[in-house]
Amino acid sequence: MKFGVIGGLSVEDGGVRHLPTAPKQRQLLGLLLLHAGEVMPVHTCVTEIWGEHPPPSAATTLQTYVMHLRRLLARMPSVGSREAAHDLLRTTGQGYLVVVRPEELDLLRFEQLVEQAGRAADDDAVARLLRGALALGDRPVLADVRIGPVLRPAVTHWERRRLEVHEAYLDARLRLGRFRDVLAELAVLTCRHPTHEALHARYMTALWQTGRVGDALDVASRLTGRLARDLGVTPGPAIGRLLSAIRRGDDVDASFLSAFPSVPGRRRA
């Protein structure tokens, strides 16, 4: 049995997809899976599905959605019964929760790999583990599910989390001296995040290390222009120090990136 939220909602068992088609049922399942192991109060589920002005029948309709989801789960061979489905999608005094093991949900597997990377002894192991986490999917969380007021900040949090992990992966590769190998990834990421100073610092470092000094200066120039145009600010002092070192021809290596820490295995506040 496999559940997925990275890239889109998925439910698979024995290679067969078991996925609700009704949009609001998909939305409810996505909410419960994104908060697996946590109780989602009834009022939270109602707010996610119907917003701030739900119909009078919302709580009753929510119970119907839960019933349909349990029926779907009960048809899965590895669940196999109504009782097992109730154990998987539980009702508490306050609301509902989904109980799954880390290997059954891609988001939990993602965090498991990141935590293992945080305990790894060397950068080769860090890069391998974080690459495995990132390989679980590169599209936004619940990309094919309608997003309401509760899911929206949660999805945003997980997208930031994934970017943090990607930064940590790139840092491990840079510390290993794989500068040329990360250029394509950094080119894409800096296009996606044109005001993200840490990503641009990594790109500048990799370009300098591969002899592309002019391109590194161009990246700094684009960043400066975009920050001024979009946010009305200038790059921070860490970018300034990196740019000065490149212009002077100093040795620019991964140590410059300590000003832009990425911490695998621990979520930033």
From TrEMBL:
Q: What PROSITE patterns does its record include?
A: OMPR_PHOB
The domain of life is: Bacteria
Arranged from A to Z, the UniProt key words for this protein are: DNA-binding, Transcription, Transcription regulation, Two-component regulatory system
The feature table lists the DNA-binding region at: 1-100
Q: Where is the OmpR/PhoB-type domain?
A: 1-100
Which InterPro entries does the annotation name?
A: AfsR-DnrI-RedD_regulator (IPR051677), BTAD (IPR005158), OmpR/PhoB-type_DNA-bd (IPR001867), Sig_transdc_resp-reg_C-effctor (IPR016032), TPR-like_helical_dom_sf (IPR011990), WH-like_DNA-bd_sf (IPR036388)
The family note in this entry says: Belongs to the AfsR/DnrI/RedD regulatory family.
Recorded protein name is: AfsR/SARP family transcriptional regulator
Protein's organism: Streptomyces thermoalcalitolerans
